[in-house]
Write a structure and sequence with these properties.
The protein has 333 residues and is an alpha/beta fold. It has two domains: 93 residues, Nitrogenase molybdenum iron protein domain (Rossmann fold), CATH 3.40.50; 180 residues, Rossmann fold (3-Layer(aba) Sandwich), CATH 3.40.50.1980. The protein is built from 14 helices and 13 strands. The strands form three sheets. Strands 8, 9, 10, 11, 12 and 13 form a six-stranded mixed β-sheet that branches. A five-stranded parallel β-sheet has the order 5-4-3-6-7, with helices on both faces. It has a two-stranded antiparallel ribbon with strand order 1-2. Helix 5 links the parallel strand 6 and strand 7. The chain is globular, with a radius of gyration of 20 Å. The protein starts with 10 loop residues before the first strand and ends in an 11-residue tail after the last helix. This is Fe/B12 periplasmic-binding domain-containing protein.
Amino acid sequence: MRGVKIFIFICIVLGGQIVANEHQKPKNIVIAGGMWPLPSLIMLLEGGTSSLTYIPKASKNALKASFMYELFPEIAALASGENENIEELLKLKPDLFICHSANLKLCQQMKKTHIPTIEMSVNTWDYNSYETLQGWLEVIAPILGKESRARAFLRFTKSVEEDIAKEVATQESKPRAMIIHFAESEKSFMCGGIFADYLLEKSGAENVIESKSIAKVSLEEIYRLNPDIIYINNFNTLMPEDILNSPLWGVVKAVQDKRVYKFPLGSYRPFAPSLDLPILLTWLYTHNHPKSSKDINLINFAQNFYKQYFDISLSFEQARGIFNPKKEAGLVK
């Protein structure tokens, strides 16, 4: 494991001592405290839900709106919610807890039990999606006995990142883009920040929102920024037609050029780190530089990717559905 600054504890607390538990594969994993991307990551690595006992409701909502629900119908029976009551979680008889390091109270409660606990961070790697996934996989893959699959995925993802960088270097200019997370009202939006810089820069665009944190942006400010492209992520039910058909947006260049796009939905909402990252980067590149990417067949790319790296055979309709996500996928509660 790399010497990284991640708050991860795989331990059993016994009389104040921390004893690593490295050999027994967990069968009843409870994911709580906000680690929404982890269930899909574990399911792709393992090819199902067999190790999972409880997942966040927001994770299950995304899974039910994706091809994952068709491939793994047992998702329907998987317990889910936003329960942060440690006593209730213990009733599920977990043999591994996973929590978000930002949820200090719950993580501390988990670590005080005799249950091995992994406390994971999303911002340790400066919101670099690839490095975040690498850090997570270095912890999760060995526990599940899936190191080989994880290494193959990381090699491929890095190659996609590098190939796009080579193509972008040949372009004369980059489009100015923004990512909308959700709308507070018809004139106020939460945009950019966290993983937006990585995703836009690595796919050949310039992020017009200059903020490391998610920023509150008024419609008047969007008029001033006047982006060439607007992306809408999957943590909301806002759809491109909501913007394209609104008279309030008609003066924005992205709307005039009809370059407003909803993020794809693969195994999870890919603005957050997910194993769909190669697909998302490629999809973003095709919209950022449509002329130089016209030969890329995204449906074939997705089918080949899932088959080669996760032994999942997607039908044409399932692969096409990735790039036409359901509005319901944006429901997080």
